[in-house]
Amino acid sequence: MRQSQTLIPTLKETPADAEIKSHQLLVRAGYIRQTASGVYSFLPMGNKVLNNVKKIVSEEMEKAGAVEMLMPALQLSELWKETGRWYSMGPELMRLHDRHEREFALGATHEEVVTSLIRDEIKSYKKLPLSVYQIQTKFRDEKRPRFGLLRGREFIMKDAYTFHTDQDSLDEAYQKMYQAYQNIFTRCGLNFRAVIADSGAMGGKDTHEFMVLSEIGEDTIAYSDTSDFAANIEMAEVNVTYEQSDEAAKGLETVETPGYKTMNEVSQFLGLPLEKGIKSLLFKVDERYVLVLSRGDHEINDIKLKNALGAINVELASEKETKQLLNTEVGSIGPVRVPEDIEIVADHAIAAIRNGYCGATENDKHYQNVNPDRDFKVSSYQDLRFIQEGDPSPDGQGKIKFAKGIEVGHIFKLGQFYAEKLGAQYLNEQGKQETMTMGCYGIGVSRTLAAIVEQYHDENGIKWPKEITPYHVHVIAVNPKNQEQLDLAEDIYEQLQQNNISVLFDDRKERPGVKFADSDLIGLPVRITVGKKAADGYVECKLRENGEQEDLHISELIDKIN
Ligand code: ATP
Ligand code: MG
Ligand code: MG
Ligand code: MG
């Protein structure tokens, strides 16, 4: 590519709003431009590097047995209502109306769409397992879009989904995906680590995040200094062993809480951070159970909860239903009004909810029925959000250290959450209807690109790793007005292309200083400078990686670069 014919608008000055290196450099080197907060155009060079990341991702997905497809960004609200995420995703989900006032979401992720699609297309166990993926634009109205491509409101994601008849088949696919992710981030040249993660509002358990280690990472990883234990400290719980004696069931109001079993999931649903000292109250209203979280003391007498943080209908876990039951604003900070005929089932129900049951534990009116030690025993509970550096590692080996990470990938065993909600069933070998088991696997493709720049740059610009670089060689004609130099540079440009070496040719009529500065900024691995020694057939070859340079005769050039 001739530089005079492409669009690489480099900037001398650092854009005022760009706080981190990848954002500064991708803008300054002419790879991307912002069009709105968290929304970017990929210019020709940016598009090339993005395609290179996509190519690696695609190749490894195909190797792992996934087939590529493409689903729409525009998604009917009905699907999102069926899973409850229309309510639980809150303002992050971009919503719009069509001319007939039908509600839509712009896809933040595609579990709803893909599950309903597979539900309609696959009816028999013979067609399972199935693994599909897409590389597609996602929309999330992030509270704080920032750091350029790292946290956009419109961004590129690879999302894969697998469908199975049973857990073993899912486990196998998960392992394959885990390996594919290792391959992808290794090929991207990244220093990364897989960590155990929190399943959040996605439902299901068993999940890993792939973290690029970086000071500017927004996630904190707690890892052991001697074993391979590593986890996102967002994790509320690791290593929980819960024992419920047979006695516990007796005299206890217990109710299963499908979908939102852990306290962390409850807090995710409500969009509330869990803190030490949060209290909870469990009500029974119309045969439904509602959990209210509050920071202060409950004021039960006038049936008003001051300082309530939010509430969840633990059976249905839908914001709308909870609102109806409580006749109040839910999920927001403020007083919560509860109906007058409520029955208070349990105060301080946290430990119980955490383990998948709502039940009386302490301070509640059924307390004399109940013995917390006997009935609810959490033998090793670890809340990582309160863990400190130097604490013993939850796996019992070594001490905890902290590192910052950028989440570039996330894999989940979803189980049957979406398949159940959306009725994705198949006929098994005996001709019986069964619910599918699912996994989902995301990679922030545009975020990965930015993470690469975070790890590959110096004070002068980007230093692309070889699988990502937009072109391998940068040929610079120092003085294109000198015919000898121009001819030689043209000749080298031709030869490299004939040898399938990708090349950017700086044929612009700019001062040498400008060309060299741009070249460092743009960051191609090899620079060939055609200058004064051109008359003798010599050029200068310089590696961006380490600055090593040598004079080479054109006859040895191709061999050297290959
Ligand atoms: P984060 O914790 O950073 O908000 P997430 O956990 O919400 O990310 P997932 O739902 O797991 O994201 O989506 C899969 C992948 O998509 C993430 O691992 C990340 O690499 C990428 N991603 C998520 N949000 C953004 C965003 N706003 N901009 C760019 N990439 C994103
Ligand atoms: Mg997010
Ligand atoms: Mg996350
Ligand atoms: Mg995630």
TrEMBL record:
InterPro entries found in the cross-reference section: aa-tRNA-synt_IIb, aa-tRNA-synth_II, aa-tRNA-synth_II/BPL/LPL, Anticodon-bd, Anticodon-bd_dom_sf, Pro-tRNA-ligase_IIa, Pro-tRNA-synth_IIa_bac-type, Pro-tRNA-Synthase_IIa_type1
Q: What class of enzyme is it?
A: ligase
> What GO cellular component term, any one, is given?
cytosol
Q: Which organism is it from?
A: Gracilibacillus salitolerans
Q: Where in the cell is it found?
A: Cytoplasm
Pfam families cross-referenced by the UniProt entry: HGTP_anticodon (PF03129), tRNA-synt_2b (PF00587), tRNA_edit (PF04073)
Biological process annotations from GO: prolyl-tRNA aminoacylation
Name of this protein: Proline--tRNA ligase
